[in-house]
Design brief:
The complex is a heterodimer of chains A (327) and B (318).
Chain A: H1 2-17, H2 23-36, H3 43-72, E1 75-76, E2 84-85, H4 89-95, H5 98-132, H6 136-142, H7 144-147, H8 150-160, H9 167-174, H10 186-214, H11 218-226, H12 231-259, H13 263-268, H14 280-290, H15 294-319
Antiparallel strand pairs in A: 1-2
Chain B: H1 4-22, H2 28-59, H3 63-68, H4 81-86, H5 92-97, H6 107-138, H7 144-153, H8 159-172, H9 179-187, H10 191-203, H11 207-214, H12 219-230, H13 232-247, H14 251-256, H15 265-275, H16 283-317
Helix pairs in contact in B: 1-2, 2-16, 6-9, 6-10, 6-13, 11-12, 13-16, 15-16
Chain lengths: 327, 318
């Protein structure tokens, strides 16, 4: 221990010498000094001990299942018997599976409605919040639906949307409209589920975008005002371009999340009526746990994964997410 | 969501007429926009909060009375019956008489399962992530950068790809229907947590640590005595966000548990919802169960609301 202390003392003047350099240089220099210094001598062993649990989790529950998932998608696997290699059979079957394509269509329909509404209203809500109030209470109330589970949200809304006793239909009838079978008609099932999804996610997304708005320096708006821009122009010409990186990120996260919608549907329609809300994750779940066709379910998971990667890539490209317009 | 625009539009017209008179000094157009914005915000808040009120209102109503008076704003025939039913406090005969199904659901045991599942998983994952984040932020070791990018790559893989193989693994390990099976896959590794904490630790000044080093403190003591307390803010944030996520988790427990002795509340609620008779569901009981499931989150919110709001903003900015 004494040795360590002495040598640490020796190395400290080196740090002092660097004191007037820019911070980044200083840190790099210190790292260079420290790398061989005794203070980092035991680091290697300690580091491996510290990351051991995370590494174990990574290998066993992330890396291995990913590779295994890829492998299983090329097999016939019914859980009780070991998987047998069938090459591309699952994917050939997939290409000709009408239910799969219908299910993909339903999923995309859902994603378009859910993400479209979430993005539109969250940008609007964030902008309105930003202009009107910094109250944490208001923002807190807005994220309330984020705190409850999708199961709870789905249960409440299936009560509120009930055909006979639901408050929504009562209001519609009171206003002179016709009651709708929101969750039990083919036409309404997906839009209704999408609205529940929007209700659940709107606040969360709004708060993220709101945080993005707060990073825009107010001087930019002052400059805009001096140049005679009105609120709408400032929003379209200043706010939106500056927000682009955040909006791109939020959009990608929302699309990925919406593609994997499951909980709300499991509680409300279970994919019905007549497959009208049979989204991909529901179909995969039913194949795996209803018919124990794990090989085929894995192949569909792979397909979903590829779709998600492709969409993420395209979106990031289109929105040039890494740079805002002004940079 | 579908009906409120129409209900708010009535108030909208009324307010518009009032505002120009109130703020005569300002430009007319500006205050019109502002009051429109306020109305929009009030509309959003109404749609957001109303379902929570409706849960409470229905949960305190008599299930049969709901039939005859479905549009009452206040509870119909106020009663604690639904709560007594779902918490297993009512005798089966009494429950049936009140419009519940005879089968008892005993939410209290599921509540306990949820508490165990959410608390243990979150505590473990935050603890292990902290250790790993420290190794990435403060220690010098070979392979650090490679390991870190490997961990980050895991963020790209969506849940659906690993869920089925993980189920097979848990089944092979004989851990179906156990807390270990539910907790283990999510208790060791979280790329997001590690990244989040590493970023924070990199931003911390190293001066205190260097001073401790001069005093002869070992690395382990520094981690627990200095860095951990300094990072307590983000650690608590991750704990809260993790706890919310675990409490609300449905899909993974659905895969690995079929036995009600370990199932969390979300599953019990879904089963309760699905097994409710189609002809005449026990809506009052369902809403009482919903409230029981949501209440811990609402309490958490009351205590940590500000922190939750700020941390969500922060997580999005990275």
């Amino acid at each position: 221990m004494t040795l360590l202390k002495v040598e640490a003392d020796v190395s400290s003047p080196a740090n002092n010498l660097n004191a007037r350099r820019p911070r980044k240089d200083r840190r790099a220099a210190r790292r260079a000094v420290n790398a061989g210094a005794p203070s980092h001598r035991g680091d290697g062993r300690l580091a491996w001990i510290l990351i051991a649990p995370a590494l174990l989790g990574f290998v066993v529950f992330a890396l291995y299942p990913t590779l295994r998932g890829v492998y299983l998608s090329f097999t016939e696997f019914r859980v009780l018997t070991p998987p047998t290699w069938v090459g591309l059979d699952n994917f050939v079957k997939l290409a000709g599976d009408e239910v799969f394509w219908q299910s993909l269509g339903v999923t995309i329909y859902f994603v378009v409605i859910a993400v479209g509404l979430t993005m539109t209203f969250s940008v609007l809500t964030a902008a309105v919040l930003h202009r009107l109030t910094t109250s944490t209470v208001v923002r807190g109330l807005i994220i309330l639906p984020f705190l409850i589970s999708s199961v709870v949200a789905a249960t409440v809304w299936s009560w509120m949307l009930d055909t006979q006793l639901g408050v929504v239909n009562l209001v519609i009838e009171f206003l002179g409209g016709d009651g709708q079978q929101f969750l039990s008609s083919r036409a309404w099932a997906i839009p209704t589920i999408a609205l529940i999804h929007v209700w659940k996610n709107l606040g969360y997304t709004s708060i993220i975008i709101f945080a993005g708005l707060q990073t825009i320096p107010p001087t930019i708006y002052e400059a805009g005002r001096i140049d005679g821009a009105n609120e709408r122009q400032m929003f379209l010409r200043l706010t939106m371009p500056l927000l682009r990186p955040i909006i791109a990120l939020v959009l990608v996260l929302n699309v990925i999340g919406a593609f994997q919608v499951f909980d709300i549907i499991a509680v409300t329609t279970k994919g019905g009526p007549a497959n009208a809300s049979n989204v991909l994750q529901m179909y995969i779940y039913n194949k795996a746990f209803g018919q124990f066709d794990f090989g085929y379910a894995s192949a569909m998971s792979m397909a979903l994964f590829v779709i998600l990667i492709a969409i993420t890539f395209i979106q990031m490209r289109m929105l040039r997410a890494n740079e805002s317009d002004n940079s | 969501m579908t009906y409120t625009p129409t209900t708010t539009s009535a108030t909208l017209i009324g307010s518009d007429r009032m505002t120009p008179a109130r703020v005569r000094g300002h430009s007319r157009k500006f205050s019109f926009g502002r009051s429109l914005a306020w109305l929009y915000l009030i509309g959003v808040l109404f749609v957001t909060i109303f379902p929570f009120y409706w849960i409470l209102r229905t949960a305190l109503s008599d299930n049969y009375a709901l039939l005859s008076n479905p549009s009452s704003i206040l509870p119909v025939d106020f009663t604690w019956g639904p709560f007594r039913r779902v918490l297993g406090l009512a005798a089966p005969a009494e429950a049936v008489a009140e419009g519940g199904s005879g089968a008892s659901i005993q939410l209290s045991s599921f509540l306990l399962n949820s508490i165990v599942y959410a608390t243990v998983s979150t505590a473990l994952i935050v603890f292990f992530s902290t250790l790993a984040a420290y190794a990435f932020a403060r220690l010098q070791w070979r392979g650090r950068e490679v390991m870190f990018s490997m961990f980050l790559a895991a963020l790209m893989v969506p849940g659906i790809l690993t869920l089925l193989p993980n189920f097979v693994l848990i089944k092979e390990l004989g851990l179906l229907n156990t807390f270990a099976g539910m907790i283990l896959p999510g208790a060791l590794f979280s790329a997001f947590n590690i990244f989040f904490l590493r970023q924070f630790m990199l931003g911390l000044s190293t001066e205190t640590e260097e001073a401790a080093l001069l005093d002869g403190a070992g690395r382990v003591r520094m981690l627990f005595g200095i860095t951990l307390p300094m990072a307590s803010g983000p650690i608590i944030t991750l704990f809260i966000l993790g706890f919310i996520g675990m409490w609300n988790d449905y899909f993974w427990p659905l895969l690995v548990t079929t036995d009600s002795s370990v199932q969390p509340l979300t599953l019990a609620l879904a089963v309760f919802k699905q097994s409710s008779p189609q002809a005449q569901p026990d809506w009052a009981g369902l809403m009482a169960a919903t409230l029981v499931a949501a209440l811990p989150m609402l309490l958490l919110f009351m205590v940590f609301g500000r922190r939750i709001v700020n941390s969500i903003g922060f997580t999005g900015l990275k």
